[in-house]
Amino acid sequence: GSVFWVKNEASTISKKIEENLRALISSQNPSAIAIVGFKDPVASREIVQKIKSRDQSIRILQLASEEVQSFAEDDSRKLEKPSQRVVAWQELFRDRVETEIGLLEIQLKVKALRDLAGDAKSVALLLQDDPDPDGLASALALRKVLGRNSQSAPIVSFGTITRPENVAMARLLEIDLEKVRTVDDLKKFDRIIMVDCQPSFFKGREFEVDGIVDHHPKANLVTYSQSKLRFCEVREDLGSTSTLVTLFLRALNIEVSQRLATALLYGIKSDTLALNRQVSESDLEAFMFLYPHINGNMLRKIERPELPLEFMEILRKSLRKLKVEKGLVVLSLGHVQREEWIPQAADFGLQMEGAEWSLGCGIFEGKIVISLRNCGYVQHGGDLFKDLFSKLGSAGGHRCMAKAIIQKGDWEKKFGPKSLSPAGIARVVRRLFNKNIQARPAGN
């Protein structure tokens, strides 16, 4: 089609409109659309009526001021076969303008972040102890924002990646994670930026940080040294840190690769439960911005990670004693070669008919590891695990998933030597779980 610009002068309008109408009608185009937009509401309405009188098949998009939008819509509703839409100029451009203004503001913040990194030889992008997809993707993107590589901006954590999907994500997208064992190990980095976490995530470990990029509720930072904290962007209104870092990329007009887009979209998807939890307009915009650039096949492989034959053999043995009692499934694997097999067993158990709670248990590197999954509408899994296991080791998590890690010696001392066999671990866990769950009010 063609676009015609017509000055808002009576002598010009009539002549130009007639020319355009003749061209439009002579083309006999069934999909012809006339766009009408004049500041003068009277002229705009006359032109719309003239178009309708010449050819009722022409569809009309009328751009109007908000004050004349209502009567124009009334005209449209009177049509037997509606072929007219009315949009206020303000509505047409408002969202786009607000988005661009927001990106201009973010440019200043990104500049401050880049200034923080400066000419530092190494900038550690620090994630929580068991990094999740949102943290991994955000750190990967933040490295791009800073214009650095894996050597000058390594992604680090005090822990390791354990969930099967997260392990698959790191492997398929080639995200390297450097493990630091103590606070002293962080001293080798010139700068430390916390990504998708805050100092409150590292209770018992105090160290200075230079920057924080996160979306979780802002915690009290007073107990931590802030002498070096020069950048703190915590966006509680966003459903994921991946959304925030996507805004950084857009503000700088940085081209997003297929690998990075796939990581960020999965980060948004996982932290918002597939856009079903704490979703803002910015999350939806980021999702739509990234979606055309992702690798769909790779995303499916991440979401449905491969099951090694060794894991299937261990799972087969644990299934011999599988039963669902009062909505609880316990799969005890014994010694495992890879820690991620334990939460994988918990995920599998939750698929059993009648299962509301699923526990995967195993021994990895001298520790009892227990992973919990539930269906979401029952009691809070993280709080339950704190009550059950926090005095023995580390324990906690979210409503639908939780984790406990207990030294094998402490477990044996508490429950006896027979409690270390797969059946013994299952027996202890089931007893503790049933006793505690019955004592807790529903929904807590």
List the topology elements.
Blueprint: H1 10-27, E1 33-37, H2 41-54, E2 59-64, H3 66-77, E3 84-88, H4 89-117, E4 123-126, H5 133-145, E5 155-157, H6 164-172, E6 178-179, E7 191-195, E8 211-214, E9 231-234, H7 241-251, H8 258-271, H9 281-290, H10 296-303, H11 309-319, E10 324-325, E11 328-335, H12 341-349, E12 357-364, E13 367-374, H13 381-389, E14 394-397, E15 401-407, H14 408-415, H15 422-439
Parallel strand pairs: 1-2, 2-3, 4-5, 4-7, 5-6, 7-8, 8-9, 11-12
Antiparallel strand pairs: 10-11, 12-13, 13-15, 14-15
Helix pairs in contact: 1-2, 4-7, 5-7, 5-8, 6-10, 7-8, 7-9, 8-9
If you had to describe this structure to a student in words, what would you say it looks like?
43% of the residues lie in helices and 17% in strands. It has 444 residues and is α/β, with parallel strands linked by helices. A 6-stranded parallel β-sheet has the order 6-5-4-7-8-9, with helices on one face. The longest helix is centred in the N-terminal third of the chain and has 29 residues, at 89-117.
Short description:
The protein has helices at residues 10-27, 41-54, 66-77, 89-117, 133-145, 164-172, 241-251, 258-271, 281-290, 296-303, 309-319, 341-349, 381-389, 408-415, 422-439, and strands at 33-37, 59-64, 84-88, 123-126, 155-157, 178-179, 191-195, 211-214, 231-234, 324-325, 328-335, 357-364, 367-374, 394-397, 401-407.
The amount of helix comes to: 40-55%
Mean pLDDT over the residues? 85
Structural class: alpha/beta
The biggest beta sheet is recorded as: 6 strands, parallel
Radius of gyration: 29 Å
Order of helices and strands: HEHEHEHEHEHEEEEHHHHHEEHEEHEEHH
Number of strands: 15
